[in-house]
Write a structure and sequence with these properties.
- With 412 residues, this protein is α/β, with parallel strands linked by helices.
- It has 2 domains: 12-44 and 330-410, Aspartate Aminotransferase, domain 1 (Alpha-Beta Complex), CATH 3.90.1150; 74-313, Type I PLP-dependent aspartate aminotransferase-like (Major domain) (Aspartate Aminotransferase, domain 2).
- It has 16 helices and 13 strands.
- The protein has helices spanning 12-22, 47-59, 74-85, 94-100, 110-125, 139-147, 167-177, 200-213, 231-234, 236-243, 281-296, 303-313, 315-345, 353-357, 369-379, 399-410, and strands spanning 29-30, 103-109, 130-135, 151-156, 158-159, 164-165, 183-187, 216-221, 250-255, 267-273, 362-364, 381-382, 388-390.
- The strands form 4 sheets. It has a 7-stranded mixed β-sheet with strand order 2-10-9-8-7-3-4, sandwiched between helices.
- The N and C termini lie far apart (49 Å).
- The structure holds (2S)-2-hydroxybutanedioic acid.
- (2S)-2-hydroxybutanedioic acid is lined by residues 13, 33-34, 138, 140, 192.
- It is an enzyme of class 2 (transferase).
- Its EC number is 2.6.1.1.
């Protein structure tokens, strides 16, 4: 019997989304889940993505429902790798060729799948004592590593007083407590949930610490193109770690859910980087990754990866995709400004600059659990218990209502 099962935690993000959908209130606002919405509050299939969908429907290819290989579509995984590590689209230089030979890549079931495959691989073959995650981090990081049985530790990340990255305490904790062979989970850009990233100088210090203490960097890259507005800038930390000498082993979980708007098509890749000293290693790693993938779900899905590889391979569509990214990121920046200005106008007690200083899809508001509950119960505004809001839920028609509601709960 299963009557004595533990009471498994409900995923807050999806539970909140469910509650929002079920709410019939006309003024309800969803600031919970991190999905892009237009100014009208609608999902937005990217224009570059739609072009490929039209192409695919015209082609009517009889092979469109066939299996992918276990490692995934290698045209896709190579394009994903080149985007992440900044390899040029032009003819490859000998240095680029050597750099690529350090990387084992497989297609995954989006970012969660990439995090999972990476965690499963490392748990089996690297056996870290601990995984270090930022406090706070995306809650699913906890679930993914807990399911692998790896003990989780937290390093300080967010300083609630300054609303900035708690660099000194993060470094001090890792210096004192992280052990050789531990894994550290790092958000490549647009940290979820805080919207606060390390500066380049801070990244360099983290990289140096990892290298010196032999801590294995595990990057989660879910927002490339959403943070700085530049794909290169958003991959800066990953590329810095990758290019360090002496070379480090590391890995990257890469999601295309947000930057291609392919949420439900589960499109992603996992890259494991060797130090390049043994050319046979990459093939062996890929074989072992495939072994795990085959045993779990055989291979990743085809539709999203077909779209991404085609957009990335076509210079015109790639340029259009850059424009699509700019559409999304600029709307988020406008909404940050709108909310901030309205709070200033209302003279809402407290400081709110962090709303415009934080980047990416999320902002950490600093609202308390009681205030967050009141926002939901009285104003039908849904946000995470941590105070994280998804900026994309804001629109020209609801930001004033959201600001008034914040003003109301803050003044109690
Ligand atoms: C979020 O944090 O809201 C998104 O990344 C969606 C998810 O899968 O949790």
């Amino acid at each position: 019997s299963f009557a004595n099962l533990p009471d498994a935690a409900v995923d807050e993000i999806f539970a909140l989304n469910h509650a929002y959908i079920a709410d019939a209130h006309p003024k309800k606002v969803n600031l919970g889940i991190g999905v892009y919405r237009t100014a009208e509050g609608k999902p937005w299939p990217l224009s570059s993505v739609q072009k490929i969908e039209e192409q695919l429907s015209r082609e009517n290819d009889a092979a469109r429902h066939e299996y992918l290989p276990i490692e995934g579509d290698t045209v896709f995984t190579k394009a994903a790798r080149d985007l992440m590590f900044g390899f040029s689209l032009d003819a490859e230089t000998p240095a680029e060729k050597a750099a690529k030979q350090r990387i084992a890549s497989v297609q995954t079931v989006a970012g969660t799948g990439a995090n999972h495959i990476g965690a499963a691989f490392l748990a089996h073959h690297y056996k870290p004592k601990h995984v270090w995650v930022s406090t706070p981090t995306w809650a699913n990081h906890h679930t993914i590593w807990d399911l692998q049985g790896i003990e989780r530790k937290g390093y300080p990340y967010f300083n609630a007083e300054t609303c900035a990255f708690d660099f000194e305490n993060a470094i001090a904790t890792l210096e004192a407590e992280a052990e050789e062979g531990d894994v550290i989970l790092l958000h490549a850009c647009a940290h979820n949930p805080t919207g606060v990233d390390p500066t380049k100088e801070q990244w360099k210090a983290i990289a140096e610490l990892c290298q010196r203490k032999h801590i294995f960097p595990f990057f989660d890259s879910a927002y490339q193109g959403f943070a700085s507005g530049s794909l290169e800038e958003d991959a800066w930390a990953v590329q810095y770690f990758f290019n360090m000498e002496p070379r480090m082993e590391m890995c990257v979980a890469q999601s295309f859910s947000k930057n291609f708007g392919l949420y439900g098509h589960r499109t992603g890749a996992f890259h494991l980087i060797t130090n390049g000293s043994n050319p046979a290693e990459v093939g062996l790693i890929e074989k072992n990754l495939c072994h795990i993938i085959r045993g779990e779900y055989s291979m990743g899905p085809k539709f999203g990866s077909t779209i991404v590889k085609r957009v990335l391979a076509d210079p015109t569509l790639r340029a259009q995709w850059h424009d699509d990214l700019a559409v999304m990121s600029s709307r988020l920046i406008q909404m940050r400004q709108a909310l901030y200005q309205e709070l200033l106008r209302l003279k809402t007690p407290g400081t709110w600059e962090h709303i415009v200083n934080q980047i990416g899809m999320f902002s950490y508001t600093g609202l308390t659990p009681g205030q967050i509950l009141a926002m939901k119960e009285e104003f039908h505004i849904y946000l995470l218990k941590s105070g994280r809001i998804s900026i994309s839920g804001l629109s020209p028609t609801n930001f004033a209502y959201v600001a008034q509601s914040i003003d109301n709960v803050v003044r109690r």
